[in-house]
């Protein structure tokens, strides 16, 4: 004959069952990986470490080959059109770039007035890094916060140059290399353009080198059109690189918007200028 349990015993048994169930849930539930906590650095410390790392690695990247895919879509007045171009790039330190056009499709006007002038502009900027480098000579910085393993900084240009920008940059908290740019050009080059948004990302290669991955720039024109330029960077082959174990390496174009002439060329294209 079973002994009848008191209400207190029943309550204690139910409580123990609930606790065991809760414990089982915690023991069997997947454990989320711990989020890395970035050191609390001031903006001056972040910028100082970025510049220090860039100086340390400035001589490491001597040469690379790569491929790029350019695509420009224009929608609006006087007519919608598009074009693409495949390019090979040959980089030699400290700032020499040579481009070879492999193929092109679509609008010849875009090819000649936009793509070729972009390449010419980048070649000129590569040899004049002092006016485009990401540093206190060209920019003012403030700390916007953190995003995962990145410090996020506000950047303001000190001069109104077509090769500079204002917006935000993401800096890897371990390598202290720029991983992302979200910005607008420092100078509106033409009456015909009203706004441009720059989205630029970098990738870390297997040997620790950071190089551009994708650039997307969306430019609005005054008559209602939109020009969208997308550049995909591919097939990097790095040679003569004095890599060091555990160290990331940045090229001279780290943090530099390589397509600063887009707004001018888009404006020329829309307004019909030669």
Descriptive overview:
With 274 residues, the protein is α+β, with helices and mostly antiparallel strands. The chain has one domain (43-271). Helices cover 24% and strands 42% of the residues. Helix 3 (108-126) packs antiparallel against helix 4 (262-271). The longest helix is centred in the first third of the chain and has 22 residues, at 7-28. It is globular. The model is unreliable at 22-29 and 243-252 (pLDDT under 50).
Q: Could you give the topology of this structure?
A:
Layout: H1 7-28, H2 43-57, E1 61-75, E2 81-92, E3 96-106, H3 108-126, E4 139-147, E5 150-157, E6 165-172, E7 178-185, E8 193-204, E9 209-221, E10 226-241, E11 249-250, H4 262-271
Parallel strand pairs: 9-11
Antiparallel strand pairs: 1-2, 1-10, 2-3, 4-5, 5-6, 6-7, 7-8, 8-9, 9-10
Helix pairs in contact: 3-4
What are the key terms here?
alpha+beta, eleven-stranded mixed β-sheet, 4 helices, globular
Number of strands: 11
The domain tally reads 1
What value does the Rg take, in angstroms? 26 Å
In DSSP terms (H or I, runs of 4 or more residues), the helix count works out at 4
Helix content: 10-25%
The end-to-end distance, rounded to whole angstroms, is 105 Å
Mean pLDDT: 79
Strand content: 35-45%
Overall spatial form: globular
Low-confidence stretches: 22-29, 243-252
Secondary-structure-derived class: alpha+beta
> Could you describe the largest sheet, including whether it forms a barrel?
11 strands, mixed
H/E element order: HHEEEHEEEEEEEEH
């Amino acid at each position: 004959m079973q002994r009848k349990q008191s209400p207190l015993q029943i309550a204690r048994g139910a409580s123990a069952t609930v606790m065991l169930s809760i414990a089982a849930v915690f023991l069997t539930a997947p454990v989320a990986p711990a989020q890395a906590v970035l050191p609390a650095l001031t903006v001056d410390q972040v910028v100082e470490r970025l510049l220090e790392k860039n100086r340390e690695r400035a001589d490491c990247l001597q040469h690379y080959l790569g491929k790029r895919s350019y695509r420009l879509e224009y929608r609006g007045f006087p007519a919608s059109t598009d074009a693409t171009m495949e390019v090979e790039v040959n980089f030699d330190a400290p700032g020499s770039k040579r481009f070879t056009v492999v193929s092109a499709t679509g609008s010849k006007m875009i090819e000649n007035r936009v793509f070729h002038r972009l390449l010419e502009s980048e070649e000129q900027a590569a040899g004049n890094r002092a006016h485009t480098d990401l540093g206190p000579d060209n920019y003012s910085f403030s700390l916007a916060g953190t995003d995962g393993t990145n410090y996020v900084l506000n950047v303001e240009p000190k001069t109104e140059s077509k090769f500079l920008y204002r917006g935000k940059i993401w800096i890897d908290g371990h390598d202290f290399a720029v991983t992302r740019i979200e910005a607008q050009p420092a100078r509106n080059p033409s009456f015909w353009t009203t706004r441009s948004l720059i989205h630029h990302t970098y990738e870390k290669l297997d040997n620790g080198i950071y190089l551009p991955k994708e650039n997307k720039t969306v430019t609005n024109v005054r008559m209602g059109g939109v020009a969208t330029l997308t550049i995909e960077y591919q097939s990097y082959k790095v040679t003569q690189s004095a890599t060091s174990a555990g160290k990331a390496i940045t090229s001279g174009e780290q943090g530099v918007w390589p397509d600063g002439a887009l707004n001018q060329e888009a404006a020329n294209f829309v307004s019909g200028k030669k």
